[in-house]
Structures are given as structure tokens and as C-alpha cells.
């Protein structure tokens, strides 16, 4: 989870290779995430967490004479760039799995490319339900790609979880929604709104913004006129932070709440003092509250990465570990990585271990079986957990 102390600002260790010896056989795990641009803080945390998992697996010798190399590819948070990254990795005969993507909108074009190459894909961050359960995830779920899995819960859980918190625990009966028109943001708001209205809540305004803008005066004026008691936002921190700041400056002094896309120290840095009281949900229990999570954070800091693990570090570490666990089965008698690709996909269905985020296992659709989430609030210039529970 996002903790400002979970990585040092020193030199990187790990990089794209974990040092296979001359007698070792190389197997590669790719990473597709935004390594540049507005979302790079999240993407670099994903990359380094995978590198940590690979390094520890190599040090353990559990894969025999196979050594893992990590191959990071920058998708810039853009679907077309992500598609090109997937094609590059798919053409590498030594790639057996990929951790990524961050954005659900990028996952869409990436999935079929990796699936065709029989490369296992495990996302630590995609939350749109259609990626695993098809066009009608609630009414007629149907698995889309057997090669796709995720360690995070979906918007079908995260949105309603937030709605219940605001309505039942915070006592907010009227609010407004805003989303950025992207797959993740719109899906999150849709899931939130359905549950909030079912509980009896009233949505007094439903606005959208453009994801490439940071001036929201017209939206703020429209929201202020409707006098909501809170604003629920679907999107990521580069837009959520200025929206929160401009809401308060414009006289709409109410909490902004979002999903895991805003749960980053970067949100607080960008929003400044106006972030106080804002809320976010994120998947799982706080990493530092679990013994395995504490060890992960300590190991990450000791590795000296120049970027913090951020919101998805622990889930990326578990995603990489899940692929490695499957590789222990698929590589056992394989001569080449390509020989083991389908076997890795097949072995994923039986993967089950105690990860740094809790129990890691997948259901028949490739979704995580864990349904624990946490609400965080900005207090004293940092995210503080205020409510953790299993969604039922």
C-alpha cells in the first residue's frame, strides 16, 4: 500500500536483470506500467516490487538452474503504447509472464496479444470487472482470457464498499459524482452510484471532466450550486488533486473521495493542505498492519530503490510471486520457456499462498478470492487507515 517511508531515495538495485550466471537458463517476467508521465510514481513502484520478488526468487534457488530477468516496458498509461509494449514482450521467446497493467483501459488491448502468445498476465491494479467476466459481469459472467489474473479486487466491490462507508458510517446522504470518462473512472462511479442509490442515498449531480485538463472551475461551480455533502471521484490523482484543491478554493468545502487511483502520497503533495479530510479506498488491509507486509516494506527499503512502493507495490510483489509459484510447476521439465508458457497458465489455477497482502488465490474467472478493503483519510499530511473490513 502507499506509504511514504516504503522506499529510500537512494540508487536503484535490481534493474532489468537479476544476473543470470553462465550456467543458468534465463526466464523473463515483463512489466507493463507507466514508467514516465503523471502516473509514473505508481508504475515505478510496480516495477521495483516485481524486481524485488525476482531477486528473492533467484537468491532462493527454488527454480533450479532457471534465473529470472525482469523486463520493464513503459506504457505511459496509454492504450496504444501499452499495446506496443505487449507486442514487444510477446515476441521475446524468453518471456513467460507479465505483471501489469496499471490502467484498465490499457489492459483491454494488451490482453489479447499476451493471450495469443500464451503469456500469463497478472495485474496488481486493474479493477474493471469486464476484464475477467466479460461484457455482462453481473448478469452473465463469462471468462474472457484464461491467461489473465489479478491480485486486486474489482470496482464491483470497491465502488459499493465506498458507498456503504459514506452512507452508513460517515452519514452522508446526499453527494455528487465526477469521473474522468476513462474505463476505470467511469466504471468505479457506476458501481458506486448503483450501491449508493440502493442504500437510499441521493446523487444531486453527476459531472465529468477531461483527463488531460487540470482547470475545473465550471465543474466546481456546477457542483457548488447543488450543495453536495461530499464528492465521489472516479479517476486518478493527477486530476483528483487539483479538483479537490479547486473545490475548496471555490467554497465547496466538502470531502472528495476516490478509489485506489487517488491513494498515493502524490495526491497529498499535489492537493496540499486542502487534501485534509479527503478519502480513498484501496484493496486489502494496510500493508504495514500485516507481518508479511512489514517484511516486504523493510526488504523494499533495504533494496534501495529510488521510488517508493506506492499503492500497488505489495500487490505487484504478490502478482510476480504468483507467476513464480506457477513457474515452479511449469519449468520443472521444460526445455524452453515457450514450452512452459501454457503450463504456467494451467498452473495458475492452483496457485495459493500467504502473500504480503494476505491470502493469494484466484477464482474461476481469474479474480482474487480476497474481498478485504480499507478506507483511508488524509490526516496530518498523510493517508491514515480508518476502516478495514471484508466486503460481503
Q: What number is the mean pLDDT?
A: 93
The biggest beta sheet is recorded as:
7 strands, mixed
Q: Roughly how many Å apart are the termini?
A: 22 Å
Backbone structural class: alpha/beta
Estimate nothing, just give the exact number of structural domains.
2
Q: Predict the CATH topology of the largest domain.
A: Rossmann fold
How would you write the strand order of the largest sheet?
7-6-8-9-10-13-14
Number of helices: 12
Q: Mind telling me the C-alpha Rg?
A: 20 Å
- Count of extended strands: 14
Query: Which overall shape is indicated by the principal axes computed on the Cα atoms?
Result: elongated
Q: CATH superfamily name of the largest domain?
A: Response regulator
The CATH architecture designation of the largest domain is 3-Layer(aba) Sandwich
Helix residue percentage? 25-40%
Classified by CATH, the class of the largest domain is: Alpha Beta
Element-level helix/strand string: EHEHEHEHEHEHEHEHEHEHHHEEEE
Show unreliable segments.
1-19
Which range does the strand content fall in? Answer: 15-25%
